[in-house]
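User: Okay, second chain of the day. Same drill as before: sequence in, C-alpha cells out.
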Amino acid sequence: MAWLITLALAVGVSGAQTWLKLVSREPPPGKKHALTIEDAVFWIDWTVTAVVALCGALIAASLDHKPIATSTVFVALGAILVGMTVMPFGVRMVCYDGSGVIKGWLHVVCANAFGLIVLMSAVAAGVKTYA
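Assistant: Same drill. C-alpha cells below.
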C-alpha cells in the first residue's frame, strides 16, 4: 500500500509543480504556454524526496529504539548512493547532449523512471524499517 501512496504523491506533486509553472510564466508571443521539455524532468525532485524520507524514517526508528535489519540498511544506502552519485552522471551522459539540452521525451521518461525507482526503493526500505 505504501508504494501506491508514494506513486500517487509523486504524480500529484509533479502535476501541481507543472501547473504552477504553467500559470506563473508568461508565454512567448504566438505560443499558448511557456512550458518546455525540461519542465517534465522530475527525477531530481523524486531522488531528493527519497533521501529525505529515508533519513526521516531511519531517524524515527532510531529514536523509537527499533532494530533495523542489515539488509534494509544496505538497500537504503544503495538507493541513496545510486540516486545521489551514480544517477546524476548517468543522466548527464545518456539523456543530455553536449550543450546541456535534454535529447527528447524518451530520455525524460527514462530519467524519471529511474528517479521513481530510487523513490520507491527508499520508501520500501523506510516502511520496512519503521513498521
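DSSP finds four helices and no strands in the chain.

User: Thanks, on to the next one.
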